[in-house]
């Protein structure tokens, strides 16, 4: 049996420790419990342990789950958002971590306008330039931020990344540093604030907190291993 409360407490403690090591305040780091593939009754155990912020990567799955759960929860979208799901997604999620192209941002802006919404978003950066991953390359983002900033319905609050899979948490550190430095450069260049850095998953969230993460997205360390879905293969 998985003890979700014990897992959550362990993750919270590690976040607090990593924050302390790096002279940060633990309250500046939000733990997003990634509930994808886990049913509502499992999510309820986390709610019982005081968790209110949850991450999902599929709109349909999230919508079904959200209907079954208390309305005070806060849901974050962390997956690749398909254009035909935008209208469904916008009312469900308080933050979209994974806006991965100018084209998608434009589509979200248009639908937000039609539906009278002001979505909060992060821009996903493909930090290692992996062909298999979604996200802006750093240079592309620098070139396209001007256009992104004209999208008046969007509140662009920061950056997100998913570093290459690695056994060692330390392997992610350079990518977290790169994301933070890219953020700092963009803030300077465009005279704007990008306060949120969404980085760190089960294997590397402590390192991410040390390097400035304000949002960590943790699934396995809280809920245990996921059963593989066909769409994840
Ligand atoms: C699944 C997922 C996570 C959580 O991964 P774990 O390794 O289980 O913590 C975090 N971020 C994104 C974008 C994901 O898709």
Under the CATH scheme, which architecture would be assigned? Alpha-Beta Barrel
What is the overall pLDDT average?
96
Main beta-sheet annotation: 8 strands, parallel
How helical, in percent, are the residues? 40-55%
Would you list the SSEs in sequence order as H and E?
Answer: HEHEHEHEHEHEHEHEH
Structural commentary:
By secondary structure, the protein is an alpha/beta fold. It has one domain: Alanine racemase (TIM Barrel, Alpha-Beta Barrel). Helices cover 41% and strands 16% of the residues. The protein has 9 helices and 8 strands. The protein has helices at 4-21, 40-48, 59-68, 86-89, 102-115, 138-149, 173-190, 205-210, 220-223; strands at residues 30-34, 53-56, 74-77, 95-99, 120-125, 155-161, 196-198, 215-218. It is globular. It starts with a helix and ends in a 10-residue tail after the last helix. The relative contact order is 0.16. Residues 34, 36, 57, 78-79, 162, 201-202, 217-220 line the site of pyridoxal-5'-phosphate (PLP).
């Amino acid at each position: 049996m998985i003890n979700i409360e014990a897992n959550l407490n362990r993750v919270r403690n590690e976040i607090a420790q990593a924050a302390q090591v790096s002279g940060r305040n633990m309250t500046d780091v939000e733990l997003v419990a990634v509930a994808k593939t886990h049913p509502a009754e499992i999510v309820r155990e986390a709610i019982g342990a005081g968790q209110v912020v949850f991450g999902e990567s599929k709109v349909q799955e999230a919508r079904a789950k959200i209907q079954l759960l208390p309305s005070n929860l806060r849901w974050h979208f962390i997956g690749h958002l398909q254009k035909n799901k935008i209208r469904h997604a916008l009312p469900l999620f308080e933050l979209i971590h994974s806006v991965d192209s100018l084209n998608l941002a434009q589509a979200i802006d248009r639908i937000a306008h039609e539906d009278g919404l002001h979505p909060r978003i992060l821009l996903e950066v493909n930090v290692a330039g992996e062909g298999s991953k979604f996200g802006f390359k750093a240079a592309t983002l620098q070139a396209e931020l001007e256009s992104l900033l004209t999208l008046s319905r969007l509140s662009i609050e920061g950056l997100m990344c998913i570093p290459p899979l690695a056994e060692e948490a330390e392997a992610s550190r350079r990518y977290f540093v790169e994301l933070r430095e890219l953020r700092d450069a963009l803030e300077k260049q465009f005279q704007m604030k990008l306060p949120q850095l969404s980085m760190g998953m089960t294997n590397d969230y402590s390192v991410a907190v040390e390097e400035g993460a304000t949002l960590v997205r943790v699934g396995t360390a809280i809920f245990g291993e996921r059963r593989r879905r066909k769409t994840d293969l």
